[in-house]
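Example 296, ligand adenosine monophosphate.
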Amino acid sequence: MGWPPGVASPRIDLHAHSTASDGTDTPAGLVTAAAAAGVDVLAITDHDTTAGWSAAAEALPPGMSLVRGAEFSCVSGPGRAERDVSIHLLGYLFDPEHEAIVAEQSRLRGERVRRLRKITEKMAADGFPVDVETVFAMVPDGASAGRPHLARALVAAGVVASVDEAFSALLHNGSPYYVPKADTPAVTAIEMVRAAGGVVVFAHPLARRRGRVVEPSVIVELAAAGLGGVEVDHPDHAADDRALLRGLAADLDLVVTGSSDYHGTNKTTPLAAETTAPEAFDELVSRAVGVDVLAG
Ligand code: AMP
Ligand code: FE
Ligand code: FE
Ligand code: ZN
């Protein structure tokens, strides 16, 4: 975007959550916190919703830029169950009123409510001091419910000491309480976001602590389907996996991004813990036509 001479090395963080999904800062609080952390460009990327966009835009501090995005809950590929993995795709700068996106995000938020209710009920039936009302009281209207909301209820009830412990002990994907949700086939999500003028980045593809991850061949397939970038520098990525992803990105002409995946106090990672190079950011923006990057 042509960086002013004063900004020698802009800090660009392209993945952050607000209370519109499973972060703990309001959208306005998120952009304020980002400015305080010295972030020059922030992307708001709540799970399966754009509900935080307008409040974040209205509160945008002077000098900061806002990239409007969302994190899409996807499944790596349909019809080959043994290979399918639950993955996240970041969509940036797409038209938020695009019909297919509005419909799919709304469906997914419904799926999220349904499955979180089931997980909570299973745990309550086993004697855990949690109930559906308390969990959903934490989810604002239009926001995406997620396991971190239940994790916080478990912390509040004294069952575990932290959100992280709630996941490692009870809420992880292999837990007996786990209930899956019907995610969007990744290729469908890519086509949808691109049709809405956006660009798609594969979020934390090799975050192994969360469960199974995709084979490199899946990244090759998604690149052929229109994937625009890959999140290489992410707190959940090991050094050797970053090197592998960097090589794949070079081969496939994918933009390399780095981001904190900030979730407020639901995770320990601070804003700008990982960042994106300005040249990579400019390339990403040049691949999108849906909505503009907002300048505060
Ligand atoms: P859900 O969206 O309901 O499937 O829950 C997944 C979300 O939980 C992710 O987006 C992360 O924000 C969060 N999460 C996953 N694993 C952990 C963990 N080990 N500790 C804390 N938060 C986690
Ligand atoms: Fe999350
Ligand atoms: Fe994610
Ligand atoms: Zn995220």
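Summary: The chain has a mean pLDDT of 95.
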